[in-house]
User: Fold this.
Amino acid sequence: MSFLALQLAKEQIADLELQLLKRKLRVSQSPCDTNAVVGDRQLKAFCSNDYLGLANHPDLIKALAEGSKKYGVGSGASHLISGHSAAHELLEKKLASFQEPFIPNARALFFSSGYLANLTAITGFAKLAPRNGLSLYSAKLNHASLIDGIRLASAQNNASVHLFDHTQLDSLLNVLKEDTKPLKLIVTDGVFSMDGDLAPVKELLKIAEQHDALLLVDDAHGFGVLGEQGHGILEQENIRSDRIIYIGTLGKAAGVSGAFICAQDYFIEWLIQKGRPYIYSTATPPAIAHTLVKSLEIIEGDEGKKRRAQLSRLIKVWQDEMTFAGWTKSPSCTSIQPVILGSNASALMAAKLLDDAGYWIPAIRPPTVPVGSARLRITFSANHSVDDVRELIRTLKDIEQKILEKNST
Assistant:
């Protein structure tokens, strides 16, 4: 690396520090759970995406050991070379069956991460379009992986890109009315990861039908927790359509790792042939796929229902009992419950005071969220108790008072 590059990196990192935007790694020495050991301290964690509390589940630990014994610890190659195992095949069939009630002729494709799944789905779709023949419509608050997929697809196809506010769909409708391009894709999160609110999927699908578009839904934070059986936002909204490309991640509520695309059979076959991130990535270890099959059984079984019911109890306690004097609480109905403080300094101070009180809840700052909306992103797990939430409420009220008093002097 050139000396100039190193000097620029040093200067720009210093600038991030001045703006209170530099991020730091914290090393956890314990399994992902509601109690975490960080350094030499035990903290109550309200920050992971392990919504159902499955990441340290004994049945999944056992399944991973079984999978490793049966398949080893690596896949050895990409799926199209020699890395596609019986475990991957079984997992994909089970994932497709999860979404078959909502997507006709559903087929699933497994990936090592949600980022790769989103890049593959969007760029693969773009390859179907003639040059200059594609329009991409993206919700403004979409996850970075969706944004990057759209940027890459736009560059390779010279596609038109339009942003829309998912809470106000008039602008989306107005642009679509004038759109004469042959292929159109509307892209949205199912649950918005920093606000916890749901996309208006029914309305977006209706718009897609009216204007001959497809709808891609990244349900990273809905899969496993939304719907009676945890099948996600399509189940919750009782939607069935062949226009949907569904993305689910498996390292959040499913408790393990990876992601999948589920869509009509021919589209999945196209991605196998032309999806570069899929073709040129080493397959996830089969033991992970073996473990995920067990995770899916838990999600749609009685235990999954009980865990989702516990999450609903925690969310209700939070929404009923948490009030702030100056901060803003989201009306989210999901496990993601942000508290908006505004400034980076206030968010960092609150996170530090929470840490001092024994809580792990990091400050979320730009560019992850818009400037002026720095926040605490509080997330609930089915392994939290009602008492845990009430104790957090008491602690947060005390911390808010301290910060408001400090800022007023």
